[in-house]
UniProtKB/TrEMBL annotation, chains A, B:
Source organism (scientific name): Thermocatellispora tengchongensis
Keywords: Cytoplasm, DNA-binding, NAD, Repressor, Transcription, Transcription regulation
Family per record: Belongs to the transcriptional regulatory Rex family.
Subunit structure: Homodimer.
Function text: Modulates transcription in response to changes in cellular NADH/NAD(+) redox state.
Keyword Transcription: yes
GO cellular component: cytoplasm
Known DNA-binding region: 23-62
Protein name: Redox-sensing transcriptional repressor Rex
Localization, UniProt: Cytoplasm
Length: 235, 235
DNA sequence: CTCACTTTGTGCATCTGTTCACAAAGGGAT
DNA sequence: ATCCCTTTGTGAACAGATGCACAAAGTGAG
């Protein structure tokens, strides 16, 4: 039986915490730019849009980096979170699919700012290959494996149409990539050990629609009962 | 005390379930296009990339729409999920900020396909105002309130630079919008009753980097045990 | 009708995440 | 040094989500 010590410095950081660390990092970066040297959990939590107990518990998973009665040193905390997230090293990212979205991503400043470097843009469309976007030459998808190997690409962003995504995914995983950010609206199947994160614009809208509908229902005198539909004769 | 009946048709659908319904919907749509009339929880779960017990529990929150020994009627289930998500009605969406990302969103087919209609594109840049994108005229941000009111916009997508986002947010909430999809890398503060969903490209990358780093650590000689760090003399 | 087989819907145990509330720790004033 | 004030770090209660495993419900063959 694996006994998990309840120590800090335990390397098992909860997934929910990991997802919030970038948020704290951004808030802290803003503060350091405004010359703030020290921040309390209360203030940082407010800036990040979470409650302060949660913030403190999250940070406690990294170690004990605050000073009671005072708060956290902004610079130091930035460094600790960056290190934990692996942002002190430089990640080479390839973007596959240079349509509207791929272009937007290539030009997105937020990528470059924090340890990420767009190392390649790839597409299959001959009209697009050769274009210069965000200072990079768009290369043909045939070069995928070569580019990944030569430039040490470890994260691939898939911004292709849905139909091409699985195929691209298969090729990049075969080439040894184990981290994929997928914008195509499909469920990718990948070998064990490969992480896929998905960003799906239409899913987000659908979730909003759900809540919006519910708000509307509540205002206009309750749910529209009994639009009951006879079961069976649909098809 | 409010006694919540453990019945199906209970309108309290868990958030986690709501977030998966669009996934099921997409899988089902694919099936109906391939002429599949009936599907088991096992197969649908596989297509959506979840486990089958979870799928069944999720669907059971909508009601009891399956047939034991047979499975679910694809068309009927599509209808039920669509209705629950509010996709049987037509949602007018306005996109504020017509940079690379805004353009990508305006052209994204997935929006239109399911009940969402891009009703307006707005920007503050005079060079962009007047452009025709995805069949729409880009309008000046000054028209924001008018456009929202006239076209019945109920969901606003913010795709502006970070610096402009809160201001746009304030204006659209003042105009009565209660659902916002935010792509700008800032924490928006909104009045009670307003739903904000956030899509943040760089956060997703940072989460991937964290896991990637961890995988790298593990391979290069196991967890770096006893990198124990003496507490206190850091900083 | 009865039996064998399939697949749903759900009670229950478990795990993960959130929030409360407070003791412990540090700072600064006197 | 002592006292008071602030703020962290965390135990414990609670809440929410997941997954197992099985009874209940349906189909179809004989």
């Amino acid at each position: 039986m694996i006994r998990r010590l309840p120590q800090a410095r335990d390397r098992g950081i909860p997934e929910a915490t990991v997802a919030r660390l970038p948020l704290y990092l951004r808030a802290l970066t803003g503060m350091t730019e405004r010359g703030v040297a020290t921040v309390s959990s209360e203030d940082l939590a407010e800036a990040a849009g979470v409650n302060s107990a949660k913030l403190r518990k999250d940070l406690s998973h990294l170690g004990s980096y605050g000073t009671r009665g005072v708060g956290y040193d902004v610079e130091y905390l930035i460094y600790q979170i960056s290190r934990e997230l692996g942002l002190t090293q430089d990640w080479a990212v390839a973007i596959v699919g240079v349509g509207n979205l791929g272009r937007a991503l290539a030009n997105y400043g937020g990528f470059v700012s924090r340890g990420f470097r767009v190392a390649a843009l790839l597409d299959s469309d001959p009209d697009v290959v050769g274009d210069r976007i965000a200072g990079l030459n768009v290369e043909h998808i045939d070069e995928l494996e070569t580019v990944i190997a030569r430039r040490g690409v470890s994260i691939v962003v898939i911004a292709t149409p849905a139909a091409a995504a699985q195929q691209v995914c298969d090729r990049v995983t075969a080439a040894g990539v184990t981290s994929i950010l997928n914008f195509a609206p499909v469920v990718l199947s990948v070998p064990d050990g490969v992480d896929v994160r998905k960003v799906d614009l239409s899913i987000e809208l659908q979730i909003l629609a759900f809540h919006e509908q519910r708000k509307a229902d509540r205002e206009s005198g309750g749910p529209v009962m009994a639009e009951e539909w006879q079961r069976g004769e649909s098809a």
